[in-house]
C-alpha cells in the first residue's frame, strides 16, 4: 500500500501552487504563490537543492522538458521562464506574453512549448530560439452560460474565460485543453483548429450550464415553477435591438457555483485520456473493449476464481461470474470452454437475467467469431428453453 516516504519543506513557510517532477523522477519542483519563488528538491535525499527567484507574480504552473534538463515556469507576471538545470539553474530564456500565464506544457519530444494565458489564447513556442510558432484563440470554445450572480451577459462573461490545464497527445499533433467550462477541447496544433469538443457534464445543479433563446419581445422576465422539482428557476434576459430577439439565461437559485478541471492527462499510446473534474474522474478511450464495467460485483469474482470453476466443470457458475466481471474476452473464454454436449444443461440452469446477457453476447459474437455453429447451438437452446419468457416481457 502507499505510504509517505518523503516530505519536502521550504526554508520559510510558503503556499505552494503547482508541482512538477522531471522525467527521471529524481528532481521535484514546486512554485510558490506568495513568495514568487520556485523550490527544487532531490527525490532521493529530500534535500532542498535550490531556490529560484526572478518572477514578479505568483507561480501558476511548472513543466519539465521530457528530453532536456530544462524547467519551464509560468507566472501571473505575464512571463514564462526557462531554467537550465545543468547551468546552476540559471534563466536560459524569458518568454513575454500579453496576459497572465496560467499553464505551460512541453510536447512529448521536448521541441515545443504550449502556453495558456488568461486572455483565452494558447500559444506555441520554439523555446530554443524563443520564437512563437502559432496560437489558438480558444476563449469562445469554452462556451459557458451566465452565472447566477453575473451582472453581465454570457457573451461578455466569455471574455474572461481561459484554459487552466493543457496536455499534448502522445504524437504531439493534438493538444487537449480544459478550464472553467463543461467542455474539453481538442485542437490540431499544426492547423490550429478545433477538432472536437467533449461535453463532460449535463448536471444542471451546476451554475451556468444552460442557455435558452426566446424571440418574443413581450417577455422581459419569466418565473417558472415546477411541480416535479424542488428547485426554483428563473430567466434573465437582455433585449437585442439589432437581431430583434431576447437572449435568456436559465439560472438556478440553489446551484453549485463552479464546474472546473484540475488536470488532464493523455495515455502513452494516445488512445485514451483522463480528466479530473467537479463530477469526478472521467476516462475517454478509443478502445471501448478496455472499459471495465462490472455488474453485481463482489470480492470473490476474479478471473482466477472463474477459471477455477471452469476447471471444476461448474459451467453455469463460471458464466454468471464472468458476466458479473463483464470482461468480453473472459466471457468468450468461458462460453467457448463449455462442451457442446453440456450446452443444454447450462442453458436450462441459467437465471433469466443472465439468459438475456448471454443472448446479447451471442448477437455481438456472431459478427466476429469463427465458431458460428457452436454459437448457433447456444442461441437455439436458449431460445427454445426461455423464448416464451422473453416473449412475454
Structure at a glance:
This protein is an alpha+beta fold.
Q: Please count the beta strands (DSSP E, at least 2 residues each).
A: 23
Widest sheet: strand ordering: 1-2-3-4
The overall number of domains is: 2
Q: Please work out how many helical segments DSSP would assign.
A: 8
Query: What is the structural class?
Result: alpha+beta
Determine the CATH topology of the largest domain. Answer: Methylamine Dehydrogenase, Chain H
Helix content: 10-25%
Looking at CATH, the homologous superfamily of the largest domain is: YVTN repeat-like/Quinoprotein amine dehydrogenase
In terms of DSSP E residues, the strand content is 35-45%
Question: What would the average pLDDT be, to the nearest integer?
Answer: 81
Radius of gyration: 28 Å
Euclidean distance between termini CA atoms: 48 Å
WD repeats: 52-85
InterPro entries: PWP2 (IPR027145), Quinoprotein_ADH-like_sf (IPR011047), SSU_processome_Utp12 (IPR007148), WD40/YVTN_repeat-like_dom_sf (IPR015943), WD40_repeat_CS (IPR019775), WD40_rpt (IPR001680)
Subcellular location: Nucleus, Nucleolus
Keywords: Nucleus, Repeat, WD repeat
Q: What does it look like?
A:
This protein starts with 15 loop residues before the first strand and ends with a helix. It contains eight helices and 23 strands. Strand 19 and strand 20 form a beta hairpin. It is elongated. It folds into two domains: 222 residues, YVTN repeat-like/Quinoprotein amine dehydrogenase (Methylamine Dehydrogenase, Chain H, 7 Propeller); 90 residues, Serine Threonine Protein Phosphatase 5, Tetratricopeptide repeat. The protein is α+β, with helices and mostly antiparallel strands. Strands 1-2-3-4 form a four-stranded antiparallel beta sheet, with no helix packed on it. Its main location: nucleus. It holds the Pfam family WD40. One of its GO terms (biological process) is ribosomal small subunit assembly.
Amino acid at each position: 500500500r502507499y505510504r509517505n516516504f518523503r516530505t519536502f519543506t521550504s526554508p520559510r513557510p510558503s503556499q505552494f501552487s503547482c508541482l512538477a517532477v522531471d522525467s527521471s523522477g529524481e528532481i521535484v519542483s514546486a512554485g510558490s504563490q506568495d513568495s514568487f519563488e520556485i523550490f527544487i528538491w532531490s527525490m532521493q535525499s529530500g534535500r532542498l537543492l535550490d531556490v529560484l527567484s526572478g518572477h514578479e507574480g505568483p507561480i501558476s504552473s511548472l513543466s519539465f522538458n521530457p528530453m532536456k534538463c530544462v524547467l519551464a515556469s509560468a507566472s501571473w507576471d505575464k512571463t514564462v521562464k526557462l531554467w537550465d538545470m545543468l547551468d546552476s539553474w540559471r534563466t536560459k530564456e524569458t518568454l513575454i506574453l500579453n496576459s497572465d500565464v496560467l499553464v505551460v506544457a512541453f510536447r512529448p519530444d521536448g521541441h515545443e512549448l504550449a502556453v495558456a494565458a488568461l486572455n483565452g489564447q494558447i500559444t506555441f513556442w520554439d523555446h530554443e530560439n524563443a520564437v512563437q510558432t502559432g496560437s489558438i484563440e480558444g476563449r469562445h470554445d469554452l462556451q459557458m452560460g451566465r452565472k447566477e450572480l453575473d451582472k453581465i451577459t454570457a457573451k461578455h462573461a466569455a471574455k474572461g474565460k481561459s484554459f487552466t490545464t493543457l496536455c499534448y497527445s502522445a504524437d504531439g499533433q493534438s493538444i487537449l485543453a480544459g478550464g472553467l467550462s463543461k467542455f474539453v477541447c481538442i485542437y490540431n496544433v499544426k492547423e490550429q483548429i478545433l477538432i472536437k469538443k467533449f461535453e463532460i457534464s449535463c448536471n444542471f445543479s451546476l451554475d451556468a450550464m444552460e442557455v435558452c433563446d426566446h424571440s418574443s419581445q413581450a417577455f422581459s422576465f419569466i418565473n417558472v415553477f415546477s411541480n416535479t422539482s424542488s428547485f426554483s428557476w428563473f430567466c434573465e434576459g437582455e433585449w437585442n435591438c439589432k437581431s430583434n430577439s431576447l437572449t435568456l439565461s436559465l439560472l438556478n437559485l440553489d446551484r453549485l457555483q463552479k464546474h472546473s478541471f484540475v488536470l488532464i492527462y493523455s495515455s502513452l499510446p494516445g488512445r485514451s485520456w483522463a480528466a479530473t473534474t467537479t463530477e469526478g474522474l472521467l476516462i475517454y478511450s478509443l478502445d471501448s473493449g478496455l472499459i471495465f464495467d462490472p455488474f453485481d460485483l463482489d470480492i470473490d469474482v476474479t478471473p482466477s476464481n472463474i477459471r477455477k470453476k471452469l476447471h471444476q466443470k461448474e459451467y453455469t457458475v463460471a458464466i454468471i461470474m464472468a458476466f458479473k466481471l463483464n470482461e468480453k474476452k473472459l466471457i468468450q473464454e468461458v462460453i467457448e470452454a463449455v462442451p457442446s454436449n453440456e450446452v443444454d444443461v447450462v442453458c436450462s440452469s441459467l437465471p433469466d437475467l443472465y439468459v438475456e446477457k448471454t443472448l446479447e453476447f451471442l448477437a455481438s459474437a456472431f459478427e466476429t467469431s469463427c465458431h458460428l455453429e457452436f454459437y448457433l447451438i447456444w442461441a437455439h437452446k436458449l431460445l427454445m428453453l426461455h423464448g416464451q419468457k422473453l416473449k412475454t416481457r
